[in-house]
Amino acid sequence: MKSRFVDTAASLQQALKADKPFAFFDTNSSLEHLNVNAGATYNLFGTPETLAADLKEFIKALGNDGPASAAAAEKIDTLVKDILKGFDAEAGWITLRATMPTDEFNIPRWHQDGYFYEPFTGDQRKAAVSLKGSATLLNDLPLSRMEAFNAASRGNPNDDTEKRLAVAAVLDDAQTVQPRKGQGVVFIAGSTRGAVHSEPAMNEPRLFLSVLPGTKEQIEELRQRWNKPVTSAAAAKLKM
């Protein structure tokens, strides 16, 4: 299968302009037809040699037959490898998260991602794709409002309704956007200009992919610091 990023391998590295904390890119990888009958999360820390086989079983356990699971796993495997190639990265923290409908994010959880691995300076980059269901919310908050956003975020240590409303009050709703179907987003994490984003309202089952690129050493350091296995899948109803 021809890579979608072969001719623009530098695009994900260079997609973010100096004044923009996020940018969209085409994936052509919508999987709206898949069944998601349980909440579940798959994680891989490292290189994706086993990814296709792991995801086939993971997707099958969500309520899909063998052929559909195999086809979806191949499509996601190709997308992940394309994304890593687009970042010129050899490894990554790869997460595929299945979510059942919930009202937990009817009020958005606006936040920035911190640094994931050393060096804890500069800009780190991450990619996210909603393969089924609603896409991630992003707000193009100007740097001039970042201090007010940080103050609202730090003002309450709890993730509760009061805090979420206080943080949302700093933002301009007109600056909130989402990737379209078949698009992903690359965004900055860690630095003061990190992308302000939130999970969307989830009124339907959702399948969400995120890829944090890095060197083998960076991803292994992250895995060990978090005390995680190289690969894992967990859900109350998931049987693998």
Question: How would you describe the overall organization of this protein?
Answer:
The chain is α+β, with helices and mostly antiparallel strands. It has 6 helices and 10 strands; from the N terminus they run αββααβββααββββαβ. The strands form 2 sheets. It has a 7-stranded antiparallel beta sheet with strand order 1-7-4-9-3-2-10, sandwiched between helices. The radius of gyration is 18 Å and the shape is globular. The two termini are 28 Å apart. 38% of the residues are buried.
Q: Beta fraction of the residues? A: 15-25%
Euclidean distance between termini CA atoms: 28 Å
Calculate Rg over CA atoms.
18 Å
Total strands: the figure is: 10
Share of helix, binned:
25-40%
Strand order of the biggest β-sheet: 1-7-4-9-3-2-10
Instruction: Give unreliable regions as ranges.
Output: 1-10, 236-240
Helices, by number, come to 6
Q: What is the residue-mean pLDDT, rounded to a whole number?
A: 90
Overall geometry comes to globular
Characterize the largest beta sheet: strand count, sense, and whether it forms a barrel: 7 strands, antiparallel
Helix-and-strand structural type: alpha+beta
Q: Helices and strands, in N-to-C order?
A: HEEHHEEEHHEEEEHE
Write a brief caption for the model:
It is built from six helices and ten strands; from the N terminus they run H-E-E-H-H-E-E-E-H-H-E-E-E-E-H-E. With 240 residues, it is of the alpha+beta class. The strands form two sheets. A seven-stranded antiparallel sheet has the order 1-7-4-9-3-2-10, sandwiched between helices. Strands 6-5-8 form a three-stranded antiparallel sheet, with no helix packed on it.
